[in-house]
Every structure is written in C-alpha cells, then in structure tokens.
Amino acid sequence: MEVKELGHIVLYVRDVERSATFYRDVLGFRMIVAPGEIGFAAAMFSSASGRTHHELLLIEVGADAPGPPPGRRAGLYHFGLKIGDSDEELRQALDRLRRAGVELVGTADHTVTHSLYVLDPDGNEIELYVDVPGVDWRKDPALVAAPIKPLRL
Fold this sequence. Notes:
- 18% of the residues are buried.
- The chain is of the alpha/beta class.
- The longest helix is centred in the middle third of the chain and has 13 residues, at 87-99.
- It has two domains: 9-60, Roll (2,3-Dihydroxybiphenyl 1,2-Dioxygenase, domain 1), CATH 3.10.180.10; 78-145, Roll (2,3-Dihydroxybiphenyl 1,2-Dioxygenase, domain 1).
- The protein has two helices and eight strands.
C-alpha cells in the first residue's frame, strides 16, 4: 500500500454551528454540507482548491464533551493548513485572525515554512503556514529539521 495524499480530517466539536462559523468565516473553508443537511449535526468543508468531496468534517458531540487535554500527550497535536506562498499572505491572515478575535498561541520560522498557530473553538491547534519562496527542501531534506527560529513578519 502507498498513501497518495491526506484525504480529510474529522473533528468532534461541541457546537457545530459555532465551529462551522469559525472554519468558514475565519479560515475561509468552503461549506459543502451545512449543519443539519445530512440528518445529524455535522458540517463538511472543502478548501479553495476543491480537490476532493470534503477535506474537513465536523461532527457535533455536545456542550459537555471534554476538549483536548493540554500539554504533551498521545494523539493529535495540531494540523497544518497551507494558506499561501508569501509572508504578505501570512500578514493578511494574521490581520484577519486579530479582527475575528482569534488568539494567536504561537509563531515559528521553520526555514521551509513560516507559521502561525491558533486554536479552534474546541481547543484543537491549527498551524496556518506559507511556504518560504526559494527554499527547496526536496534538494536539501535536512532543511525540514532546521532549528525553529522566531518568526519576523
């Protein structure tokens, strides 16, 4: 077997309407199926590329469901979303996040990418990143493991 690509991510959320608003209005995902359209509290999204039927599925599990535990643990740490190829696109994203009142929990210059880290309404960490122009990790794979530096936007 050979994995061809990451197909989709499924997240359990406390309130599908709240989370759908975040992923649609703040992060810019395109809603394919709105909450309630498929007979249960869920929403499906695709990215701007529309490369597949859905890349993100949110399933409501109720307000009393526990969120991700803090700190080092087994399980999901974060997932990354490429939002462009320039620092200008990252600056625009940062401005949009600030206007939406989204807390920035981290930033990083990973040599091959420049990244912002945020939490969704349920505490799932998301890396929003751009590829750094002119850095070719395919020719020098060691660049992927370069020491993390402070991000300067």
